[in-house]
Amino acid sequence: MRKLVYYIASTLDGFIAAPDGSYDDLPLHDDVRDHLVAHWPQTFPTFLHEHFGIDRPQGRFDAVVMGRHTYDPALKVGVTSPYAHLEQYVFSRSLAPADHPDVEIVAGDPVAFVQELKRQPGGDIWLCGGGRLAGQLLGEVDELVVKLHPVLLGSGIPIVDREFDPRRFRLVETRPFDSGLVVLRYLAR
């Protein structure tokens, strides 16, 4: 069965973006970029592949799921297919599927959709964000990979936005960088 992997950048206080959705305080330093290009190339938007020297992004993912607000930054710069190298699913009740033919717009229940996606053959599924979608799908997350930035925002978009319902994960890998960022990999218990 395919795994759902929540691969996300976060601050020390658990935010994936500022209150306005910006993520300028979560920079991609050179030392981290080189590691991510080598180990997680599929998580870079397709339009950046040439810039970062990614020839054929191979890896574990063949699909990406994201919320509407995670999809919006690409739309704002005219990119309707940010991860064209993957099957792309955007959860939204307001986007018209006909206006976004390069991605599949999903208006239904994210949990049921991802459960069905996990049963289909293929590679793992990347949960790209955002916090509300991650909160809804937390029970389906098999692996959590956090690029933990050494910054505190005080408020913003949380890594998961949901009612109190603790979920336990087991730490299986850490990778610190000179820039202060640490990549943490956890498996669901």
TrEMBL record:
Domain of life, source organism: Bacteria
GO molecular function: 5-amino-6-(5-phosphoribosylamino)uracil reductase activity
Pfam family, one: RibD_C
Bacterial bifunctional deaminase-reductase C-terminal domain ranges (all copies): 3-183
InterPro entries membership: DHFR-like_dom_sf, RibDG_C, Riboflavin_Biosynth_HTPR
Single GO biological process annotation from the record: riboflavin biosynthetic process
PANTHER family the UniProt entry points to: 2,5-DIAMINO-6-RIBOSYLAMINO-4(3H)-PYRIMIDINONE 5'-PHOSPHATE REDUCTASE, DIHYDROFOLATE REDUCTASE FAMILY PROTEIN (AFU_ORTHOLOGUE AFUA_8G06820)
Protein name according to UniProt: Dihydrofolate reductase
Species the sequence originates in: Micromonospora coxensis
